[in-house]
Amino acid sequence: MGQKKFKLLAAILAVILGCAAIGLIITAFIGKENNPHLIFQGETGKVHLKEERKSTFCVGVSASIADIYPYTHNDEADAVLKKLVYEPLICINNDYEISYCNAERVTFQKEGREAAVKLNQDKTFSNGEKLNAVMVVKSYKWFMANQNAYTKLLSRIVDIRAAGDDALVFTFTGADSENIKVFNIPIISQPEKNGEAALGTGAYSIDSVKPYKQIVLKANKPYNGSPEYDTVLIKTVDYSDMKKLLKSQDFDMFVFNQKEQGDVVKTDKAYDIYEFGKDTGWFIKHNKESKALGGAIAKLIEGHQFFDKIQTDGIYSPGVISAYIEPNYYSMLSNASLNNIKTVSVAHDYSAAATGIYQSLEKKLKDKKVKCSEKTYGIEEVPEDFEEDLLLFYGSYKQGMTRADNKKFFKENQEIDAVDFYEFLEKYFASQNNITPISKDTVWVAFLAGRDTLGLVE
User: Fold this and answer.
1) Residue 395 and residue 159: Cα distance in Å, rounded?
2) How many Å apart are CA 349 and CA 458, to the nearest integer?
3) Is the pLDDT of residue 382 over 90?
């Protein structure tokens, strides 16, 4: 199978990944031999499926299927559905790469306060009805009028209006890098009959939903292309007996706990294991009054060696936004020096993780003849504004981005195309040098060997 075949799986993956951190979306696959996410390769000879099982792809989710409206929850099941059934305007994978789905183009305008959307005119819903701007507006208005997991995100929108059959204009409450995520919300068409599932533009449509049990998807005939599987099942995983779960081979993919279940999955040998970075991790924020220090500190802690000394979980992250983004923060930094710097003050919470990072940084600075001092805060007391030179914090890059940063980013990057958005944002962080990445949390996902190379859509 070619590179295209990896895209669905990857997206489905976003599914699950997104799950672990709610809404986290995944990376596009490029092939095992050069895939940075593959950490263990299973054996196809260990896979034994009944003939009727081969035409069904089964996704295991850890969160229960709450009701008959799974597209409103922004959880694991919803992440799968956004790839297979309810395609959004754009797809954002776990590596923060963006691809177009129902949109052909999305461009930010007016210094980030507006965005123009051009629709993909080849898209149709599962009943054969062609996608148009009015239907997209109706879909967004439905989500905005009903309480759901996207309500807070949608509150960023002031207005959505159709500007022709295949064009829309979104107006936001202000310039913010998070605005791009409003385009990653499901596009649905409400059915004519009560009790029927909403329609989507994906390769599959919902056949049935049984709350707390499973969702059954069937191949969508109007879709361009032939899906690899006749049926996709989304089912809740029972992790109580991992050996039984693995032996059954009922699931083609599922997320699992690295520490508690990693060894048993490897020993079984029937599953490939992929590791994906999450949104959260450890960062160093630089005081705006000490900006010159930022580059020097970044060069001091760059690389796996510093990370390996401070953490046993997660992965080293050379990028602010993602551990896998290219080009990344560290690759774009210019040379910097600690010359003429005699002291560095550091603020951090009193957790063991933060203390460990501080102690390793202190040693690095001491080796450079720089004296280090610290100020500790309670975990709930870490300030947004701080007097110290550096602040160690756990969270996502968004917490290190101020309102002024958002305005400046859009002002410096006019008419940004959505597919370039995160590359430009990473470059912005490198140019401002006000936040340095240390690590990212991770999630492990098992794929039944030989079936992780099959995509459901091209």
Assistant:
1) 31
2) 47
3) no
